[in-house]
Amino acid sequence: MAVKQIDPKRFEAEVSRSELPVLLEFYASWCPRCAMMEDVLEQFAAEQSGRIKVCSMEEEQAAQLMDYYGVDRVPAFLAFYNGKVTGVIVGGTSKEALESIFRRK
Q1: What residues act catalytically?
Q2: Which 8-state DSSP code applies to residue 87?
Q3: What is the mean pLDDT of each run of 10 residues along the chain (105 residues)?
């Protein structure tokens, strides 16, 4: 499963009501760190296909959602489970770190 590009209108259906856990990335087209994360995110999505849904949202469209979740920098990665945020990583990161925010404690 590839990374699914969504906009705020699809947030409720794709993230809040998802039966699968969701990794949501906020990114910007002008951001070099965001561009560096593309391959990591694609690899994570491929490896987690069927277990974790991976979505991406452009920050220019997502200002209200970013404010709501307290995100002020990109890239930012939010883990959702049953519509609630269960983990956050801001900045460039590794596939292993993304995996770690979904591990049950």
Answers
A1: 31, 34
A2: E
A3: 91 95 96 94 95 96 95 96 94 94 73
